[in-house]
Specification:
The structure holds 2 protein chains of 2 kinds. By secondary structure, chain A is mostly helical. Chain A has 6 helices and no strands. Chain B is α/β, with parallel strands linked by helices. In chain B, 52% of the residues are buried. The chains are: A mainly alpha, B alpha/beta.
């Protein structure tokens, strides 16, 4: 696995932005430091995700219910934590004043997340079956 | 070092935590020659955050990842339900015991410290004096403790606002500083409480602002809190009381000597003095120090180890008590979409007390915080959905999330105990074995109480989202291993604080407490340490 391409995929997935070099360097260091060694099965899934980045949200959602603290989710969380500490991306994380009407988006996001979870579970079953 | 080992001091104080600091201050101010023995671990890297608000740092500091993730990404590392994992990177060193405090258990997971200042360096700063009824249940002398509370309050500086919770926080204690400015979430909860006070009080719940060891006005060389919301990371101007502040002051006295790098193993009494056997951390080289009197002020578990070794009391059970603890994240729905001011403290904002019989003897307490400066990724980690959607949801909800940490009182029972066992696998050749199980009755009572807390949270417009019950020991409040007893009985403590069956060994931590109120232990620990030191001086 190449931490640089992983960093790009994860950053695009989480905040739809190309990561800065600092983010890529930090991600590389963090993966080494945290020793997120993956199992053979996780490796297979991760290889698939790298080749088909569109499916990362399904894999994330699928594991969120079946194995929330597995090493692939930890990699995504690691990138999330690194992005949160970047001044360029603070607006994705620091609270902002919003209209109360925005609350309507919460049920939508929750329903979307639940659908993704179910689809992700089926998707994981399919790719692990191969 | 060899010279010190040849001197007989008036007192040896073991440990530099809240108890050790208060105990030593009392003895040093009384003119006694005091030696403090301590492991005294300090942070490896010193990368303090600037004296700016959390928001300013997040928006402007390019290398903020060092502060929020840690130089070795400590904040990201996932360590199940172990207590202490919520500590910020700059404070992680506090719970690094370097395998010198071995403990084996499958039911009890305590947090211990070998740090300079002990666990007091990460203390949440809440100060609530035990009531008279609680002090009696604990086994402490009410008059002595009331005087001691005042002395400790004068020394450390406490901010406080008089309100409905006075009986549960600072009853009768004077010379306090004005309370902290609470944030908008807390104001909204308090305003709701005021609107339905009678109904809530009928359920025996009382809400108020916290009393904290956090200065709101200048005191000696310490400044008032800068309201930067960075309290979990730094202590600019020493506005938050930490035991290390006291130890630094004491080192200016000629009758005080501080020796770090040592682990106290055991003591031995002779007719004239007490000899204290220590090993040097790292080399395990043995050194013996001596004094006329010994004050054990490490913490309950380490004091138990020292006492059990000294009495050669292996494989026999001694009691253990610890506050059961859980925390509930709640959505303060009326504040959704609104921002909190950036000028605030990260400390507890409100305290909610449940006093079922209005006797102030069996009180449970919830400490209410706003979720903010601990970073969003920590809360996302716990969400059972994909991170991308979780981020969008929490980005909106975070300003209106409050966390309520609920502590329950505890007392000893046959299913909560410690024993020391010999082993070849530890640096001290022994291991503390802990068992902590609540009875069905105790579990039922806790569950019932937590339901009542949830019901009150809902009244206060805080909708409970998720309850997390960490492993037993996560409250970091331990007591009762050498309980107070009027008779001279092995492994008990005399009401004065002297360890039974010894002449000159005193226990200045919570080992003697027979009951553990749920109001937070640190303030009472410090008061008891001062009280014990005063009694030791009288006993000379």
């Amino acid at each position: 696995m190449n931490p640089e391409s992983e960093a790009v995929i994860l950053s695009r997935y989480l905040i739809k932005r190309q990561p800065t070099q600092q983010v890529i360097d930090l991600y590389r260091e963090a993966i080494k430091e945290i020793e997120l060694t993956t199992s053979l099965q996780e490796n297979n899934v991760w290889d698939f995700v790298i080749r088909h980045p569109w499916c990362i949200s399904l894999v994330d959602a699928g594991f969120a219910i079946s194995n929330p603290h597995n090493n692939l989710r930890k990699r995504i969380l690691t990138m999330l934590a690194i992005l949160e500490t970047q001044i360029e991306y603070h607006s994705f994380f620091l609270p902002i004043q919003r209209s109360r009407i925005y609350i309507l988006i919460i049920p939508y996001l929750l329903i979307k997340a639940i659908f993704k979870m179910m689809a992700g579970k089926i998707f994981l079953w399919l790719i692990l079956r191969k | 070092m060899a010279d010190l080992a040849e001197i007989t001091f008036d007192y040896i104080v073991v440990g530099s935590g809240p108890s050790g600091a208060m105990c030593a201050q009392t003895l040093v101010e009384a003119g006694r020659k005091v030696l403090m023995l301590d492991a005294g671990i300090t942070p490896m890297q010193n990368n303090p955050a600037p004296n700016e608000t959390f928001e300013e740092i997040r928006k402007n500091k390019n290398d903020q990842y060092n502060i929020f993730l840690g130089p070795n990404f400590e904040s990201i590392k996932y360590t199940a339900t172990k207590a202490g994992t919520q500590l910020t990177p700059s404070k992680k060193y506090i719970i690094d015991t370097k395998n010198f405090l071995p403990l084996a258990s499958d039911s009890f997971f305590p947090v211990e410290s070998l740090a300079y200042g002990g666990l007091g360096e990460a203390w949440g700063l809440g100060c609530n004096a035990f009531s008279e009824n609680e002090l009696r249940r604990v086994g402490l002398n009410v008059a002595e403790m009331q005087l001691a509370y005042q002395t400790v309050a004068d020394r450390i500086g406490i901010s406080y606002t008089t309100d409905d919770t006075e009986l549960y926080t600072m009853p009768g204690i004077k010379n306090l500083q004005p309370g902290i400015n609470i944030d908008e979430n807390a104001c909204a909860i308090l305003s709701r409480y005021n609107a339905c006070r009678n109904r809530i009080q009928k359920s025996n719940f009382f809400l108020g602002r916290p009393s904290l060891a956090l200065l709101t006005q200048k005191k000696d060389d310490r400044s008032a809190t800068p309201y930067t919301d960075m309290d979990f990371y730094v202590n600019h101007g020493k506005s938050a009381y930490r035991p290390s502040i006291t130890i630094e002051q004491l080192t200016k006295y000629s009758n005080f000597v501080y020796v770090p790098g040592l682990l106290v193993i055991s003591f031995r009494e002779t007719t004239e003095k007490v000899e204290v056997l220590t090993i040097r951390i790292g080399t395990t080289h043995a050194i013996t120090y001596s004094a006329k009197k010994l004050m054990l002020a490490t913490n309950v578990l380490s004091t138990a180890r020292i006492a059990l070794r000294s009495f050669n009391h292996f494989n026999k059970n001694i009691p253990l008590i610890s506050n059961p603890y859980s925390y509930v994240s709640c959505l303060l729905w009326k504040r959704m979409g609104k921002l909190n001011l950036s000028k605030k403290t990260s400390t507890v904002q409100l305290s909610l007390f449940h006093d079922p019989d209005k006797q102030n003897s069996d009180v449970a307490m919830a400490s209410i915080y706003s979720y903010g400066s601990l970073m969003l990724f920590r809360i996302l980690k716990e969400m059972p959905i994909n991170f991308k959607d979780a981020l969008q949801i929490m980005h909106f909800l975070m300003p209106s999330i409050v966390i309520a940490g609920i502590h329950h009182p505890d007392q000893s029972s046959p299913t909560k105990f410690l024993s020391l066992q010999k082993t070849t696998n530890s640096q001290t050749a022994d291991v503390l074995q802990a068992t902590y199980e609540l009875s069905e009755l105790e579990k039922g009572k806790i569950e019932e109480r937590e339901k009542k807390f949830n019901s009150i949270f809902r009244h206060l417009n805080c909708f409970p989202l998720k309850k997390i019950t960490p492993a037993y020991g996560a409250s970091i409040h331990y007591a009762g291993t050498l309980p107070f007893h009027n008779e001279e009985e092995l492994l008990t403590t005399q009401p004065s604080g002297r360890l039974s069956m010894t002449k000159n060994v005193f226990i200045a931590d919570a080992s003697g407490f027979k009951f553990l109120p749920a109001k937070g232990i640190t303030f009472s620990l410090m008061a008891n340490a001062h009280r014990t030191a005063t009694n030791a001086l009288k006993n000379e």
